[in-house]
Amino acid sequence: MHVFTTLAIITQTKPLHIVGEPQDFGGAVALAKESHWGGFTWSPSEFVADDGSTADGLNLGAVVADHEEGVLFIMYVRCAHHLKCAVSSTMLISSTDDGITWSRPINISRQVGTDAFAPGPGYGIQKRHEPRKGRLIVCGHGMLLADGVFCLLSDDHGKTWFNGGVMKSIPYKQKKAAGDFNPDECQPYELPDGSVVVNARNQNFYHCHCRIVMQSFDGGETFPIENLYFDKSLIDPAVAAGAVLKNQVVFFTNPASGSKRINLTLRWSYNNGTTWPESLLIWPGPSGYSVMAKLDNDIEDNNYVYILFEKGQVDTTESISFVKVQLYTPVSGQL
Q1: Whether the predicted model's global pTM rises above the 0.70 cut
Q2: Mean local confidence (pLDDT), 138-155
Q3: Which secondary-structure segment (H or E) carries 91?
Q4: Where would you tag: which of 57, 77, 143, 311 has the fewest CB atoms within 10 A of its CB?
Q5: Nearest one of 198, 89, 99 to 139, comparing CA atoms
Q6: pLDDT category of residue 3 using cuts at 50, 70 and 90
Q7: Do strands 278-294 and 162-168 pair parallel, antiparallel, or not at all (unpaired)?
């Protein structure tokens, strides 16, 4: 039996798409589901990648939509932990019919290298503003000793990929200890000024039990150290969190605790993440990874954000829950 963890939820046009993958070291399959009804009903699971019983098969991944070409991509890694295998591979599958069918996986390691790179979890982005409007950006973290945040970029609608901005761990390629600088799983999003923000897991609790935030002003090619900060208002137990920009508001989800994966909370910021004045508790119990999505081109669902998260009564991975959150009150129209 496969126990799945949250991977990504994303929109192309109307449908919502969910992609899941096994927990670390589990059976190596990835599944996809879609909803044409705002998340009230979902299609049967479709297995889009299967590595059989491989001990260190596919692991983690990100979904990215090319809105200009109408293509969905899933990027994932094989042999992330070097268990009974020695070379990591970055894999890519695509769909040109809104997730109804998927291509066979292709290996893009000749383009981006064979260092262990785990995309996501969550979604990649296509830049809507200059600089580099139309660029696809997928960010993730390194594995083994060479940890940190790394981004892959494509300027030709996913045909070819190249290495973009990095934020390496310290000490790099050395064993980490508690308190070391070790940015990990991350979620990128684009601000209205065209800059790319990456909100990252603070794996070894460097400086605080909170999130690491970095920003790029050149389309994800670099992340200058002077644009990195630690958001102490976003307390975090070291976990993959969700973030999305909608209607000029940044939304963020994570287990709001400095030590335990509990209290899945939605926060929002009116000033691009500088402050987070308000919050909504989604689930008080065990809660783990979370991802977010939005529907911008649909009148009915434009007033919602969507949250997919690991939820349980005793353990965080007992189930995966989908939540549709209404953003505006019917009477006042206020967030």
Answers
A1: yes
A2: 93
A3: strand 89-95
A4: 143
A5: 198
A6: very low
A7: unpaired
* Residue 151 host element (H or E): strand 148-154
Half-sphere exposure of 273 (CA within 13 A, CB side): 29
Residue by residue, DSSP assigns 198-244 as EEEEETT-SSSSEEEEEEESSSSS---GGG-EEEEEEE-SS---EEE
Q: Tens digit of pLDDT for each residue in 272-286? A: 999 999 999 999 999
The residues near 332 (Cβ < 8 Å, ≥ 6 apart) are none
| Cα distance between residue 161 and residue 110, in whole Å | 10
Measured in degrees and rounded to the nearest 5, phi and psi for residue 27 equal: -60, 145
- Cross-strand pairs, 202: 183
- Rounded Cα distance between 28 and 284, Å, is 31
Catalytic pick among 123, 289, 304, 306: 289
Both tokens assigned to 271: 């000033």
Is 289 designated active site?
yes
Query: Is 24 designated active site?
Result: yes
**Average confidence score pLDDT of the chain:** 89
- The residues facing 324 across adjacent strands are 306
Query: Across 240-303, where does the E strand assignment appear?
Result: 242-246, 249-255, 262-269, 278-294
Instruction: Report the C-alpha gap between 136 and 65 in whole angstroms.
Output: 8
Cα dihedral sign for 198, 189, 259, 3?
negative
Query: Rounded CA gap, 127 and 184, in Å?
Result: 22
| 68 part of the active site | no
State residue 29's pLDDT score: 52
Distance in angstroms (rounded) separating the CA atoms of residues 3 and 127: 34
CA distance 156 to 158: 6
**Burial class of residue 294 in the structure, from the number of CB atoms within 10 Å of its CB (0-12 exposed, 13-18 middle, 19+ buried):** buried
- Summarize the confidence of residues 281-306 as an average pLDDT: 88
Quick one: CA torsion of 126, 250, 209, 168, rounded to 10 degrees? 20
